[in-house]
Amino acid sequence: MTDTRAGFVALIGEPNAGKSTLLNRMVGAKVSIVTHKVQTTRARIRGVAIEGGSQLVFVDTPGLFKPRRRLDRAMVAAAWGGAADADVVVLMIEAQRGITEGVKAILARLTEIAEGRKVALAINKIDRVKTEALLALTKEMNDAHPFEETFLISAEKGHGCDALRDWLAGQMPEGPWLYPEDQIADLPLRMIAAEMTREKLTLRLHQELPYELTVETESWEERDDGTARIDQVIYVARDGHKGIVLGKKGETVKAVSKAAREELQEFMGRRVHLFLQVKVRPNWLEESARYSEMGLDFSDGNA
Questions:
Q1: pLDDT digits 0-9 by tens, 147-197
Q2: Beta-ladder partners of 272
Q3: How would you label 234-244 residue by residue, b for 16+ Cβ within 10 Å and e otherwise?
């Protein structure tokens, strides 16, 4: 039998650096929602990839940013917690953004948690900048932190991703695999389903989308005919937000439900009946149960 390796890889970086896109490419399936709205990833979603005899468990952390609200603080705590628990940390930055104030802050904190674990740099969206700028950025970043390796990638197009995965596979500690071979994520299906609906809301509403919105899977019924009935609640903070989510004559929520149902059916390989309700909960951002549902620690949101 081949020697096996298994370990955790934390993807960290600013919001919208491309972490979720990279995770989905590494795993080969959609386990983390990808939108153009910042701070999309709330929970530490783990995707599992196999490379040769190595099992890579990816922790897709929320983007690191300056927290203002309780939810922000809990998300940032989850991100650093994911990095501190990992065997290897991959810092992702966007090529065209370069070294922002946010990247500088991450680099400063990285030194604290890097002890005892390898840290690689992945410069993403390399197709959007010239070679000279890319080389200068690579040098500047490596002068700022002693990265084990630097990878120039396009998570969206796949450039450089195989080399990164091969390298990561070799860095995993020797030991038995942590998950069954056919498992691609350790998130419960209920949470993956809620995340898919939240992605469709984000894509549909763009700038209108109230940040104070979350989706929960309230019930999941397996039916005798092999289909599943899924009931979800979209929680918003204000009455005005409810109208935005519903849309004129309920058109928005219907379109979101259809898109989410189709993606869920593709993901699960069977028919799904999805029912959405929109409820107003003015203080959901201060309710510990909502944080548990998102895989976050409510106490981490304390100032």
A1: 999 999 999 999 999 999 999 999 998 999 877 776 655 556 777 788 889
A2: 228
A3: bbbbeeebbeb
Residues spanned by CATH 3.30.300.20 within the chain?
189-301
| DSSP structure string for 228-240 | EEEEEEEEESSHH
CATH superfamily membership of 5-171:
P-loop containing nucleotide triphosphate hydrolases (3.40.50.300)
* CA–CA dist 117, 188 (Å, integer): 28
* Residues 212-252: tens digit of each pLDDT: 688 888 888 888 898 889 999 998 888 888 888 999 999 99
- Biggest CA–CA distance in the chain, Å, is 61
Whole-angstrom distance, CA of residue 202 vs CA of residue 41: 12
Residues 6+ apart with CB under 8 A from 100: 14
Residue 280 CA to residue 68 CA, distance in Å, equals 22
Q: pTM of the full predicted structure?
A: 0.59
189-301 CATH choice from 3.30.300.20, 3.90.226.10, 3.40.630.30, 3.90.70.10: 3.30.300.20
SS3 222: strand
